[in-house]
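Appendix C. Worked example: Mitochondrial/chloroplast ribosomal protein L6
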Amino acid sequence: MAAPVGASVQSRYLRCPFLGEVNGLRVSGVSTPRAAVVRKIVECKESRIGKQPIAVPSNVTLTIDGQDLKVKGPLGELALTYPGEIKLDKEDGGILKVRKTVETRRANQMHGLFRTLTNNMMVGVSKGFEKRLQLVGTGYRAAVEGKDIVLNLGFSHPVRMEIPKSLQVKVEENTRIIVSG
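Step 2, the predicted output written as structure tokens:
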């Protein structure tokens, strides 16, 4: 039985010679139907999402204090604390760049994540978000009653949910719900 790809060949094939690398893979000379292949550790690459600059809208105020970012705009205020692997750089022209301070796998993962979180903060405090929902089903309908949304979804009773203060909910034609905030 050959070792699975990515497994260590040292335990089972301790006496087998190492044949070298082929296209970034280490190949070991093993007398099995197929050679045992061990993946080589790949160098961390820069995140495709993380390297994109973030445009800061003119109606948004940024405050960078070490690893903390505070964003204030017409629709509210948000804050985010960055891990030590990530650094924020504000450039002229209203551009914000998220950079890695170390080259590790975790830093690469955090790079794209925190760039996206930062961009979503900018959109959230300047334009806001909107989601349109469509109820599909016989007899399904929705209504807004005061601070609650009431959904008739086929249960024996209507489902009531309180609308959070930061959201606005509109119902069109009893089956279309628009959530914004």
